[in-house]
Write a structure and sequence with these properties.
- The complex is a heterodimer of chains A (113) and B (118).
- With 113 residues, chain A is mostly beta strands.
- Chain A has strands at 3-5, 10-14, 19-21, 24-26, 32-38, 44-50, 56-58, 64-68, 73-78, 87-94, 102-103, 107-112.
- Chain A is globular and about 45 Å long.
- Chain A starts with a strand and ends with a strand.
- With 118 residues, chain B is mainly beta.
- Chain B has no helices and 11 strands.
- In chain B, strands 2, 4, 5, 6, 9, 10 and 11 form a 7-stranded mixed beta sheet that branches.
- Chain B is globular.
- Classes of the chains: A mainly beta (113), B mainly beta (118).
- The interface between A and B is medium-sized, with 27 and 29 residues.
């Protein structure tokens, strides 16, 4: 069975500082990888995804994630965070044969002024 | 487009009561899902459906039933609510996975339904 580990439950960071949210997955097959973001009292929104091709994927608001097959990781990074990035971030995995995603436990990013 | 709409948004039940959560999507998606979100546990899949008239169990199906009588609707039922079912429930939908995985598993979520069982 697939599993996703997000080691950091909370990450406090000051505005304009860089941040990395870690995600590791376990799967013996090729996978698709996703990061979703959840703002307070809202549903989840897709932030970025890796399906194939370039291992570095980017979002429209400055986040990027790199697929590392040898380390089974898909860490999320942003070089300079804003207050508006405060949210909970979920890493998710799926293999091409499955219909649903398996989610990690989430990382709460708290951006402080 | 409304996307994925869940009703009700909030509900308080007493132990043993029954209720149904309704999910509606207007994107003509084939696949629909029900997840529950609990603190520190992320989202866990309850049931899902790959098409009208079909449903399948997910990771935590016990105590829940589902129905997909129409393509656009996916109902989640609790026959006899328990305090352990206090949670936030999210419905999601996705298109049928395309050739080469271009539509693969990109889920669109509803805003959530907060259920409290006393």
């Amino acid at each position: 069975a697939q599993s996703v580990t997000q080691l950091d439950s909370q990450v406090p960071v000051f505005e304009e500082a860089p941040v990395e949210l870690r995600c590791n997955y376990s799967s013996s097959v090729s996978v698709y990888l996703f990061w979703y973001v959840q703002y307070p009292n809202q549903g989840l929104q897709l932030l970025l995804k890796y399906l194939s091709g370039s291992t570095l994927v980017e979002s429209i608001n400055g986040f990027e994630a790199e697929f590392n097959k040898s380390q089974t990781s898909f860490h999320l990074r942003k070089p300079s965070v804003h207050i508006s990035d405060t949210a909970e971030y979920f890493c998710a995995v799926s293999d091409p044969g499955r219909r649903a995603l398996t989610f990690g436990s989430g990382t709460r990013l708290q951006v402080q002024p | 487009n409304a996307g994925v709409t869940q009703t009700p948004k909030f509900r308080v039940l007493k132990t043993g009561q029954s209720m149904t959560l309704l999910c509606a999507q207007d994107m003509n998606h084939e696949y629909m899902y029900w997840y529950r979100q609990d603190p520190g546990m992320g989202l866990r899949l309850i049931h899902y459906s790959v098409g009208e008239g079909t449903t399948a169990k997910g990771e935590v199906p016990d105590g829940y039933n589902v129905s997909r009588l129409k393509k656009q609707n996916f109902l989640l039922g609790l026959e006899s609510a328990a305090p352990s079912q206090t949670s936030v429930y999210f419905c999601a939908s996705s298109p049928r996975t395309g050739t080469g995985g271009s539509g693969a598993n990109v889920l669109t979520f509803g805003a959530g339904s907060r259920l409290t069982v006393l």
